[in-house]
Amino acid sequence: MASETTASGYTEPMCGRFTLTEFTWLPGRFGLQLPMEEPPDPRYNVAPSQQIPVIVDEGDGPVLRWMEWGFQPGWFKVAPNRPPPINARAETLLDRPMFRDSVAKQRCLIPADGFYEWRKVPGQRVKQPVYARLKGGEPFAFAGLYTTRKDDTTGKPHPSCVIITTKPNEIMAPIHDRMPVILSREDEQRWLDHGTTEAAAVLDCLRSYPSERMEAFPVSSLVSSARNDGSDLIRPAERG
Fold first, then answer.
1. Rounded Cα distance, 24 and 32, in Å
2. What three-state secondary structure class fits 48?
3. 240 inside domain
4. Residue 228 buriedness (CB in 10 A; 0-12 / 13-18 / 19+)
5. What pLDDT, in 10s, does the model give residues 92-137?
């Protein structure tokens, strides 16, 4: 995974932050069996290790599950200097034992409406955060994988997930050499389908999203701290 040094000094992997500012569209968009009774508050700075909503197909149709962002198979030992991966490269999924089984059996959709990246600024050490989204702010789904292990303390199942990345499109290429896989509406069901266990049948879903359908603009450096949240984070930064 690539990493970015932000204004706060935090080492930020790609893709390391995203937004989900509206939850009420989830049941209708994904055909969830149990719509949320009380939608959570908007989230403008979702960060690794947090619990995030994930759409999975367990055999009876799509359902909503909450998972930790950071992929932790049963054998993975979390340590301060070895955090769980939050991204997986589309091109090498089947070469990585960590992800190979999940590609066949544990694919998921991670709903979002935008994500952040940090861009190098000529002559400056600190990088400029950029917010990327679909034009008009339309919500979408990242392609993801998930796994489940037993919690070391409680013994209960502890699900976790990872966002898949691919090569950047024309919008993202000047900003970073990777971008998260945003699935087309047609590919969301294919990727999620519990009945498809042949990885080769769905790998073609993992491609760069068309640049003409996206926009990206600089935002405040406040997003560099996961402690900050709120709509100010996605407001276009004033240009000097």
1. 11
2. coil
3. no
4. middle
5. 999 999 999 999 999 999 999 999 999 988 888 889 999 999 999 9
Distance (Å, rounded) from C-alpha 16 to C-alpha 22?
19
Cβ-contact 106, 145 below 8 angstroms: yes
What pLDDT score does 239 carry?
A: 60
Do residues 10 and 225 make contact, with C-beta atoms less than 8 angstroms apart? Answer: yes
Q: How far apart are CA 230 and CA 153, in angstroms?
A: 33
Residue 121, domain extent: 3-234
User: Strand, helix or coil at 174?
Assistant: coil
Q: Is residue 239 assigned to a domain?
A: no
In this structure, the strands spanning 11-13 and 3-5 are: antiparallel
Mind listing the pLDDT tens digit for each residue in 26-57?
A: 888 898 866 566 778 999 999 999 999 999 99
Q: Which residues does the annotation mark as catalytic?
A: 15, 117
- Give domain status of residue 218, yes or no: yes
Interatomic CA distance for residues 169 and 179, integer angstroms:
8
